[in-house]
Design goal:
The protein has about 400 residues and is an alpha/beta fold. The chain is about 30% helix and about 15% strand. The protein has 12 helices and 16 strands. The strands form 3 sheets. It has an 8-stranded parallel beta sheet. A 6-stranded antiparallel beta sheet has the order 1-2-11-14-15-16, covered by helices on one side. α2 links the parallel β4 and β5. Bound molecules: (4S)-2,6-dioxohexahydropyrimidine-4-carboxylic acid and zinc ion (3 copies). The site of one zinc ion has 5 residues, from loops.
Length: about 400
């Protein structure tokens, strides 16, 4: 339920299906504590912490730690994502049932950061997942198609000679996994859809009655490959920034519901891993604190979504996709609320060092946005008031 009050917009607390919090292993770039603060400031009441930590979240020891630490911090529910295989891109399925029944109750498994490229492993993962009632989220990059690929495929990246990951690397996995999900009677979720072709494949798969869902990131809704002209690795991300026509197709796909939701792929990296030569830099960018502002600018302002639609793509659909029953829905009278208040006219300028994330590099540096999250409530407790975290 969306209620407008005092010029602000009241929305259900946001749910991010795709966040990298770097704990354990890279606490110099983000921790569950710093990432929770960033999430609350971004209006989130639940985030799904990706499994490509060090060690990888392929056992209940790690997934339970992530959940418990998130509850201890108390700013946002940090739902652990389990790895599909033992180790990223492993050859053996992880103990999904054990992780699903742990304290952290893992609802989603993914090898994000490294696609489950082996179709037989993906088929077994999908079959297993449907019997457990969990979701497999696919990073959608066929790694054999990125080897020696000249470019991100856009004319800009090609001219610049930047290595990247061609459209076919993403789209072939989307098509493959749609078919595997159909035959396994399972559901699959496509992470960070980035091409017009993926939107077309999603339409096709939905038309076939296949249970497939997809997310798009704020950066793929806003930025295109013209950003690569500067060779600044702050713009390096997987999947890469694509052409303007892809950006338009993704916006339209999200507006029409072909793409279900927005997910940040919040991926903090240390300064030394981003301020180096493009090919040596790590892919990924901050996302939690700027997501709503970008959705407002790219979707609400041009009239592609109204605020009711924002509630859907930021909260209701992601909660539904992963089966969260305490998020993304209207609250009954007397029930503790997960809510976010947005001021659509509170202009602000992004300053990386001022963000709550430990990593400070962002492609949105110095950009000015109109909309800002002012207040967030987690189960009735104010976690953010006037843009300040309430610890
Ligand atoms: O840009 C990305 N960064 N894409 C991924 O798939 C992984 C992520 C990360 O962990 O840094
Ligand atoms: Zn692989
Ligand atoms: Zn990914
Ligand atoms: Zn990711």
């Amino acid at each position: 339920e969306v209620v407008e009050a005092g010029g602000q917009v009241l929305l259900p607390g946001f749910v991010d299906l795709h966040t990298h919090l770097r704990e354990p292993g890279r606490e110099d770039t983000e921790t569950i504590e710093s990432g929770s603060a960033a999430a609350a400031l971004g209006g989130y009441t639940a985030v799904f912490a990706m499994a490509n930590t060090s060690p990888v979240a392929d056992s209940v020891v790690i997934t339970d730690h992530v959940w418990r630490r998130g509850q201890e911090v108390g700013l946002v529910d940090v739902h652990p994502v389990g790895a599909v295989t033992v180790g990223l891109a492993g050859k053996q399925l992880a103990e999904m049932a054990t992780m699903a029944s742990g304290v952290g109750k893992v609802k989603m498994f993914s090898d994000d950061g490294h696609c489950v490229d082996d179709p037989l492993i993906m088929r077994r993962a999908l079959e297993y997942s449907s019997s457990l009632g969990v979701l497999i989220a696919q990073h959608a990059e066929e790694p054999r198609l990125t080897v020696g690929a000249v470019a991100h495929e856009g004319p800009t990246a090609a001219r610049l000679g930047l290595a990247g990951w061609p459209r076919a690397a993403e789209e072939s996995i989307v098509a493959r996994d749609a078919l595997l999900a159909r035959d396994a009677g399972a559901r699959v979720h496509i992470c960070h859809a980035s091409t017009a072709g993926t939107v077309e494949l999603m339409k096709w798969a939905r038309g076939q009655g296949i249970s497939i869902t997809a997310e798009v990131t704020p950066h793929h809704l806003l930025l295109d490959d013209s950003r690569l002209e500067t060779y600044d690795a702050v713009n390096k991300v997987n999947p890469p920034l694509r052409e303007r026509s892809d950006v338009e197709a993704l916006r339209k796909g999200l507006a029409e519901g072909v793409i279900d939701c927005v997910a940040t792929d919040h991926a903090p990296h240390a300064e030394q891993d981003k301020c180096c030569e493009f090919s040596a830099a790590r892919p990924g960018m901050l996302g939690l604190e700027t997501a709503l502002a970008i959705v407002a600018q790219t979707m609400v302002e041009p009239g592609l979504l109204d605020w009711r639609g924002v509630a859907k793509v930021m909260s209701e659909r992601p909660a539904e996709i992963v089966g969260l029953t305490d998020q993304g829905r209207p609250i009954a009278v007397g029930e503790p609320a997960n809510l976010t208040l947005v001021d659509p006219q509170r202009e602000w300028t992004v300053r990386g060092p001022e963000l709550a994330s430990i990593a400070a590099n962002t492609p949105f540096e110095a950009m000015t946005f109109a909309a800002r999250v002012t207040t967030t409530l987690l189960r009735g407790r104010v976690t953010v008031r006037d843009g300040q975290v309430q610890r």
